[in-house]
Design brief:
single chain; 702 residues; alpha+beta; Rossmann fold; Topoisomerase I, domain 2; Topoisomerase I, domain 3; 6-stranded antiparallel barrel; globular; metal-binding; TOPRIM_TopoIII; EC 5.6.2.1; isomerase
């Protein structure tokens, strides 16, 4: 029998098909017989999540309506269904699986890929098949063929599926119960909004809120230092005494003690030391380090980076992007070292190779588990192909390439000079830096350097110098708001915010909130829920986000530690050391405690019984009444004059396509939108159309 290969998505299936001779069929490809598959094979694909958890109302009609009396939503067992509009592809997979004895899971090589495969496999009802796992880090033809020659056992994959399934159900439980609980309690207080609650997204919003509160509460305070300006025959330099006082009086007293009140004096160089310093090339990129670098350099959002890197992966130009590793194995280093000169030509950056020996900083087999760092593949694209890439993909490809080439470059070298200038026994300290060899930094010519110590003039020990002394006043500065790129680092390192040492250690162990693959999606989710907004790359909490954080303050939902403890146990499930049943029972108890505690917590958090409605950002003047404004509401857009009788509204989702505020603005101001891509008809077919507003109703225009 021909084995059936199940890919996660069509583009991935196509990459597998490129490694063999294939014939395209409806919903699958047929692989011709070859040395790896002597009888041939079938390649089929999902469309992301073909299978999803059923809605609460499918378990019990009372859960179809939002009410406090119907909570908690805790099904005795969890049921799945084929996602709407995806049944045709599901049935194709089901038919193929029934006709084979061997199934190969070729979905993404991570937890979510395992979840997608097994949720489809189990939903088909097919049983007793021999299941193998394809585990590769590149979609290059050679790597794909090698992967199919050396398929893995599925035992580890099954454990990853159990972990991912437990995570999926726990997220569903927290979301379904928490969102209804907070939304309904706040509705009782006059806030008619939906407050989506998430196991990871909610503590993420709270951490951003805490930073914003710190900034708002900050009061700048003056501080005083003593600065010396020194003049020599070869030039001038500055130095500071080791004093940072809150009161000017302290600085004045120190000057008086050294008889330096007139501000001028003769001084001499008491100490002069110069040492050569080296900075080795930066480590290879993980996804999060690449997201941070791209946000810093080009203001790309984390989601944009992940999306562009996925396209480069599917174009076979980079290795698997959803990795948290910054190391490679000796095997990858071997092909990189063999092609280093060709990579140099590719980006027109020649330099003498410093060494082709592997260094532990980059190459360490023991530090590579599921995936290695992001590196270029063996495939060498033509200059024309590079030039033809979209600008974001090209920038990211070159960033990966230059970082990889850094392994073979020289260290950055500079001379650091430390000077102690003595004025009547009061020491002034100065540090200067002189660049000796740019080394690997020459690979990044446009990079902005952090503020560095300036070079010093030529000085000699015991040299007499003229000095002018002054007390200088400075002001303390507030913490800076997060940029979108810094959110990724904040989520990853949030253990440093935990007060409890044990909590801090757990957060370090699980690497903070979310995973390498999910953090950018979480940021997009909290943006979509209107909890945060990003303007000029600066993140701030919205009025709605602030209200959510005030409501959850003091609750475990605001705590990254709670999420970390859950994540720690989920990892045990993935290792076969924990039980999903135990985990989900704990989640159930947590939800029941939420129902008991939250009403009282809202009161103790100072939430009044009646609160003013949130002021939604006005999108446009209402086209019907011309008095009110159209604003975003629960699941829709509506007029602010609704209470006065204006019935104008727009759905937030129309034919499975989310309508953005920009779409609504077009409808209100111009009466129609440009062509919108991605509507889905009743039979599941995707199509494009523009929308028109006729007598307050939406009409399609093809």
């Amino acid at each position: 029998m021909k084995p059936v290969i199940v890919a996660e998505k069509p583009s991935q299936a196509k990459a597998y098909g490129d490694a063999f001779k294939t014939v395209k069929r409806e919903g699958y490809m047929e692989v011709a017989p070859n040395p790896i598959f002597p009888e041939g094979a079938f390649i089929t694909w999902g469309i992301g999540h073909l299978v999803e958890l059923k809605e609460p109302k499918a378990y019990d009609p009372k859960w179809g309506k939002w009410s406090l009396a119907s909570l908690p939503i805790l099904p005795a067992e969890y049921q799945f269904q084929v996602a709407r509009g995806k049944s045709q592809q599901f049935n194709i997979i089901k038919k193929l699986l029934k006709g084979t004895d061997t199934v190969i899971n070729a979905c993404d090589v991570d937890r979510e890929g395992s979840n997608i495969f097994y949720s489809i496999y189990r939903q088909t009802g097919v049983r007793g098949k021999h299941i193998k796992r394809l585990w590769i880090n590149s979609l290059e033809v050679d790597e794909v063929r090698e992967g199919f020659r050396n398929l893995r056992d599925n035992k580890e994959d099954l454990r990853l599926y159990e972990e991912a399934r437990a995570r999926q159900i726990s997220d569903w439980l927290v979301g379904m119960n928490g969102s209804r609980l907070y939304s309904l309690l706040l509705q009782e207080r006059g806030i008619h909004e939906v407050f989506a609650i998430g196991r990871v997204q909610t503590p993420t919003v709270f951490l951003i809120y805490q930073r914003q509160k710190e900034i708002e509460a900050f009061k700048p305070e003056p501080f005083y230092e003593i600065e010396g300006k020194f003049k020599t025959a070869k030039g001038s330099y500055k130095g500071k005494a080791k004093l940072k006082a809150k009161e000017r009086k302290k600085a004045e007293e120190l000057l008086a003690a050294h008889e330096l009140t007139d501000g001028k004096a003769q001084s001499h160089i008491k100490e002069l030391k110069t040492a050569e310093k080296r900075i080795p090339p930066q480590p290879l990129h993980s996804l999060s380090s690449l997201q941070a670098a791209a946000n810093r350099k080009w203001k790309y959002s984390p989601q944009k980076v992940l999306s562009a890197m996925q396209k480069l992966y599917e174009k076979k130009l980079v290795s698997y992007p959803r990795t948290d590793s910054r190391h490679i194995t000796s095997a990858e280093f071997g092909y990189l070292a063999a092609q280093v000169e060709s990579y140099q030509k590719l980006i027109d950056t020649p330099f003498p190779i410093d060494s082709k020996l592997p260094k532990k900083r980059f190459v360490d087999n023991t530090k590579v588990q599921e995936h290695y760092a992001i590196i270029p593949t063996k495939s060498l694209p033509t200059a024309r192909k590079i030039e033809g890439l979209p600008q974001d993909e090209r920038n990211l490809y070159e960033e990966v390439m230059r970082t990889t080439l850094g392994m073979f470059h020289r260290d950055y070298r500079y001379a650091e000079t430390k000077v102690v200038t003595d004025i009547k026994g009061l020491e002034f300290h100065t540090t200067g830096r002189t660049e000796l060899d740019k080394g690997w930094k020459s690979l990044f010519p446009a990079a902005k350097e952090a503020k560095q110590d300036p070079p010093l003039p030529e000085l000699s020990l015991h040299e007499q110098v003229a000095a002018a002394i002054a007390i200088v006043e400075g002001m303390t500065t507030a913490p800076k708001p997060y940029t979108e790129g810094q959110l990724i680092a904040m989520m990853k390192t949030c253990g440093k915010f935990a007060e409890d040492v044990a909590d801090s250690e757990i957060l370090k162990e699980v690497e903070g909130l979310g995973t390498e693959a999910t953090r950018s999606g979480i940021i997009e989710t909290i943006k979509r829920h209107n909890y945060i907004e990003v303007k000029r790359n600066i993140v701030s909490v919205t009025e709605k986000g602030r209200l959510l954080c005030q409501a959850i303050e003091g609750n475990l939902l605001s705590s990254p530690s709670m999420t970390a403890k859950w994540e720690s146990y989920l990892k045990k499930i993935g290792k076969g050391e924990g039980s999903s049943e135990v985990f989900l029972t704990t989640i159930g108890k947590f939800i029941e405690k939420l129902l008991q505690d939250v009403p009282g917590q809202l009161r103790s958090n100072g939430m009044p019984d009646q609160m003013p409605a949130l002021q939604g950002t006005a999108i446009a003047i209402c086209p019907r009444c011309r008095k009110g404004s159209i604003v975003s509401r629960k699941g829709s857009y509506g007029c602010t004059e609704h209470a006065s009788g204006c019935k104008q509204s727009f759905p937030a989702v129309f034919l499975k396509k989310r309508l953005t505020a920009k779409h609504i603005e077009y409808l209100c101001t111009k009466g129609k939108t440009p062509v919108i891509k991605g509507f889905v008809s009743k039979n599941g077919k995707k199509f494009n159309a523009s929308l028109e507003l006729e007598e307050g109703k939406l009409k399609m225009k093809f």
